[in-house]
Amino acid sequence: MDEKIAPHLEELTRALGDLEKSGIRAEFEKLLAFRVPPEVAKESILRKFGGKQRVLKVKDLSANLKGFEITGRVLDIGEKAIRPQEGAPQDRPSRLYTGVLADETGSVMFSSWKVLHCSVGDAINVRNAYTRLWQNRVKLSIGEQSTVSKVPDSGLPPISEISKSPTKKLLEVGAADFSVGTIACVLQLSHREVMVRGKQSRVISGVLADETGRLPFTAWTELPGVDIGSIVRIEEAQVRMFRGMPSVNILSGTKVSPVGGEEAKKLAFTFDSVRKDPSPLKIEDIAARDGMFDIAAAGNVVSVRPGSGIISRCPECGRAVQKGSCRVHGKVEGIRDMRIKAVLDDGTGTMSVMFSRELAEIIYGKTLEEAEELMFSDISKDAVYEDLRRILTGRYLAVRGNSSLNEYGISFVAESAWVPEDDLAVRVVELLHRLGSDETDGQVREIAGSEGGEGFA
Length: 457
Ligand SMILES: [Zn+2]
Hints:
The protein has 457 residues and is of the alpha+beta class. The chain contains 13 helices and 21 strands. It binds zinc ion.
């Protein structure tokens, strides 16, 4: 091979994969035959076949991304034979490679239909990569269209460093994380017995908290000395996704150790500070996460969704009954229930909030029975819905609960709801201004404070 073109071919191979197979080598030779300088030929090929791709880090990965570039170190790799499907084309790949890829921001599981000539510790560059959701987790996929090349000088930290699970704040833990470490306070803790493969096992579940937020956790091992209020360092815990929310899974390989004394004093949180009710987040910040656990938000009700009001539920499965019939159980004697789905807007974004009967009765100000009376006394079948719209639209509400992101935006399930104090203060000030009073700020706050105490929770 010509010494002048060898480095260019090498670079092209790194960027685009096997040049012979893809016909890129032939294309390159053709350009050279037309006396195009090798350097220029290389650039032209890179532009044509490489394109500009988004370069992502592991922490940037979310479900259903396409056509991006990523560089990471292989932490684990294995291959398995896939039984060819009947009638499938002969050239279909019969081996699937799976493993874990990591960079300085985290680690992610991958699967590849391409033959991977790399081993644990190698840094690889993947172009035309895509992601899939697999068991609620983000998985990096390497397909037929992807190109994979080894990167000898990646600048990535060595494997000894990168294989340690990153220590993260609870807010930063997400669907792309495979395993994490964190320092957090145990806010809730309870034991329960479950059957695991026919064996009675004790499981501990609870809630962890730090200054950024809260996450549920489950421990499949004993946690001696750990109780509510304990501050612990957790290393090599697994991240599980449940209903779009991450949770911390403590397994036998996870290390849990107490944090106390001087080290605990340096933390940005204490048991007392994390016990406080969460303060409202901006809706635009909620929209930036796949799912969030036990958070608060506040905003104005801008619309009440159709389907809100009195519904009938199947006594077997709880699904809403349509025209006396359950989708699964057929004709059933439905049980009356009330629910509200309202859109909350805080100026930074909107989210759809679901209120169960308990909360619906409180924010609506009418019980299910009172709403039923209205339904039966009015000829319009939408009487309750219209009444809900009239009463709720424009109202300022704070909610606390869990959020998850789907194709329609944020879906928030409220666990509690109340009228925020700050809103009351503002409204009292406005009221006093309207009445021409010159009351001082301090008195206003006092009035607001005494009223704000009665939460709706
Ligand atoms: Zn049913």
